[in-house]
């Protein structure tokens, strides 16, 4: 007699398993949706540098350079104009980024969980057959494309005539570059950084969607904390993967656990960019949420760099003691930093 598959209390929905952590097998659904959009199923996608859109350094570099041209040029165009409200467009923008992040996160979990459970964490972060499978490459590429969608965040800033800060502008461009280098470099550890980032983005974009609706939410500070925790975990995995790769390749007499999939330039790019994020976001957190006014002088330079408005080359309007703390929803305010003052936070993950 056949045994019926376990079902949940909701009736027809199957119980979660290792292969179907959400009860329903998501990949076949995504596969069909992908085919309706691009004309072929996701199972047939292949990332080919030079043929796949935005797959070369030249293409990525031009897009990022164009982004900076648009935001700084747009700031000048808006200089003598009234700011736009754009509330409806901003609500839509935050909602679809929340939805995209949540969908990608669920698909990543479905792909990674069985690998980690059955083959171990090291296999998942250092072996190509663990962290660089064809379905994962599809998700890596789609996540990379979302970084260009997120560049619209800064467009809302200049259209609303909000300050453009170093931290905000640097983070946007650097994140697109980071995702490109890891995609080209085939780093199996990429899924760790991406899934953590998607988790933060689900929380962050949902917060700003609700905030734009006028709903007050108490856990705003926790978004910044999650960002910092994210970077600590990211760097732990990236440093480990890089260490075991370089030692096993060049200095096998040093302690290591074997080789790790990925290109060397991608390892250096990941270490450099993620480390800069950690320092900038920590300094931002202390400047924004800690009010004692007594911080080590070594932290002040980084804090000023991450928070100061970018200088205006046409009018010489550099930061003069005011910290313009930009957020992706364009609701940041420029206020003088005082020992008992507060400041808004950046909404970048």
From TrEMBL:
Cellular component terms (Gene Ontology): endoplasmic reticulum membrane
Protein topology in the membrane: Multi-pass membrane protein
Region (Disordered): 325-349
TM segment ranges: 60-78, 90-109, 189-208, 228-246, 266-287
GO MF entry, a single one: fatty acid elongase activity
A Pfam family that the UniProt record links to this protein: ELO
Keywords: Fatty acid biosynthesis, Fatty acid metabolism, Lipid biosynthesis, Lipid metabolism, Membrane, Transferase, Transmembrane, Transmembrane helix
EC numbers for this chain: 2.3.1.-
Alphabetical GO biological process terms: fatty acid elongation, monounsaturated fatty acid; fatty acid elongation, polyunsaturated fatty acid; fatty acid elongation, saturated fatty acid; sphingolipid biosynthetic process; very long-chain fatty acid biosynthetic process
Family: Belongs to the ELO family.
Protein name per UniProt: Elongation of fatty acids protein
Organism: Chaetomium thermophilum (strain DSM 1495 / CBS 144.50 / IMI 039719) (Thermochaetoides thermophila)
UniProt lineage: Eukaryota, Fungi, Dikarya, Ascomycota, Pezizomycotina
């Amino acid at each position: 007699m056949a045994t019926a598959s376990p079902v949940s209390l909701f009736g027809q929905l199957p119980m979660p398993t290792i292969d179907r952590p959400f009860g329903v097998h998501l990949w076949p659904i995504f596969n069909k949706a992908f085919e309706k959009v691009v004309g072929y199923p996701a199972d047939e996608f292949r990332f080919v540098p030079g043929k796949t859109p935005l797959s070369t350094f030249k293409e990525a570099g031009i897009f990022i350079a164009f982004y900076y041209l648009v935001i700084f040029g747009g700031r000048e165009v808006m200089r003598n104009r009234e700011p736009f409200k754009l509330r409806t467009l901003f609500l839509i923008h935050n909602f679809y980024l929340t939805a995209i992040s949540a969908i990608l996160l669920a698909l990543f979990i479905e792909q990674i969980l069985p690998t980690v459970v059955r083959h171990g964490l090291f296999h998942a972060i250092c072996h190509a057959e663990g962290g660089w499978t064809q379905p994962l490459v599809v998700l890596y590429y789609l996540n990379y494309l979302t970084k260009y969608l997120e560049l619209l965040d800064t467009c809302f800033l200049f259209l609303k005539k909000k300050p453009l800060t170093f931290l905000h502008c640097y983070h946007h461009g650097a994140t697109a570059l980071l995702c490109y280098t890891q995609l080209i470099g085939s780093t199996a550890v990429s899924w760790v950084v991406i899934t953590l980032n998607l988790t933060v983005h689900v929380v962050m974009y949902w917060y700003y969607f609700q905030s734009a609706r006028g709903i007050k939410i108490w856990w705003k500070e926790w978004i910044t904390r999650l960002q910092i925790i994210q970077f600590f975990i990211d760097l732990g995995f990236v440093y480990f993967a890089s260490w075991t790769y370089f030692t096993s390749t060049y200095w096998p007499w040093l302690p290591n656990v074997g080789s790790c999939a990925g290109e060397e330039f991608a390892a250096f790019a990941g270490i450099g960019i993620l480390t800069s994020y950690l320092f900038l976001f920590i300094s931002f957190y202390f400047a924004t949420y800690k009010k004692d006014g007594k911080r080590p002088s070594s932290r002040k330079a980084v804090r000023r760099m991450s928070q100061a408005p970018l200088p205006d080359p046409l009018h010489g309007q550099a930061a003069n003691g005011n910290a313009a703390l930009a957020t992706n929803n364009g609701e940041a305010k420029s206020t003088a930093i005082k020992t008992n003052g507060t400041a808004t936070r950046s909404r970048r993950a």
